[in-house]
Design a protein that fits this description.
about 15% strand; binds sodium ion; alpha/beta; binds 3-methyl-2-oxobutanoic acid; 8 strands
Length: about 270
């Protein structure tokens, strides 16, 4: 059963969110029974091979979110608005969000930041019935300006900005706020002060829920382990081993076998000779 916004906001147990980018990703997340699926703009890094999320377009997000929705028709679906699609005024932001909702069947959109401009966008979108998830702390879309992909909220000024930002987003109507890469104690404080659930990634255990990039938790990329993401599987290694074995069996004519092949009657074959 798909969760509703009020139901998610009042959840007794920690909310479980994972990212998905395609049909099989949506299917497996729904089968696992997660509360929310995020079509993150981490799409750029883990699926499209860019070295940041900045090149990801609204059309990229829509293309992938449509596939995820086909795989996960009954799970609450959140889609990231990518860099540049909500920064040129509330009208443009509204237009981007409406496209995502109408063209993908998403239940909500997510955007990064808590500048006065973004807070205003959140206010207008939510007032117009579009559920918005906020995102503070480390914000990959603007990581260059933040001094690279690094932990936020460690000093007075940054901690204050992160807390105030999360509060402003909730006040403007965000139904939930992602806290990325901030100290666990700061995340706990924000979670206590916020009237809506926080969803942490690299933000300790005392958040209202957790999110991971599926490719990290599945170990899709070998050798690349991140502090914030526990690996629950070694899909990369298993995939490489499987394809390596397939290659050697093809080269040894050990695949396909009789079981993988079709048969025909001898007399039909004899007539061909
Ligand atoms: O794009 C993404 O995957 C995200 C999550 C890490 C929260 O924004
Ligand atoms: Na994102």
């Amino acid at each position: 059963m798909k969760r509703s916004v009020p139901d998610l906001m009042n959840s007794e147990s920690p909310l479980v969110m994972v990212t998905a980018y395609d049909f099989p990703g949506g299917k497996v997340a729904e089968a696992a029974g997660v509360d929310l699926i995020l079509v993150g703009d981490s799409l750029g890094n883990v699926v499209l091979g860019y070295d940041s999320t900045a090149p990801v377009t609204l059309n990229d997000m829509i293309h992938h979110a449509r596939a995820v929705r086909r795989g996960a028709p009954d799970t609450f679906l959140v889609v990231d608005l990518p860099f540049g699609t909500y920064h040129t005024g509330v009208t443009d932001a509204m237009r981007s969000a409406v496209r995502v909702i109408q063209e993908t069947g998403a239940d909500a959109i997510k955007m990064e930041g808590a500048t006065p401009e973004v807070v205003e966008v959140v206010r207008v979108l939510t007032r117009n019935g579009i559920p918005v998830m906020g995102h503070v702390g480390l914000m990959p879309q603007t990581a260059t300006a933040q001094g690279g992909l690094r932990v936020q909220g460690k000093d007075d000024e940054s901690a204050r900005r992160t807390l105030d930002g999360a509060l402003a987003l909730a006040e403007a109507g965000a139904f939930s706020v992602v806290l990325e890469a901030i100290p666990a104690r700061l995340a706990r404080l924000i979670t206590e002060k916020l009237p809506v659930p926080t969803i942490g990634i690299g933000a300790g255990v005392n958040c209202g829920g957790q999110v991971l990039v599926t490719h990290d938790l599945l170990g899709v990329y070998e050798g690349e382990e991140k502090k914030i993401a526990k690996r629950y599987a070694e899909v990369g290694r298993i995939s490489r081993e499987a394809i390596t074995q397939y290659a050697s069996e093809v080269r040894a004519r050990a695949f396909p076998t009789r079981e993988n092949s079709f048969v025909m009657k001898d007399d039909v074959l004899d007539k061909l000779y």
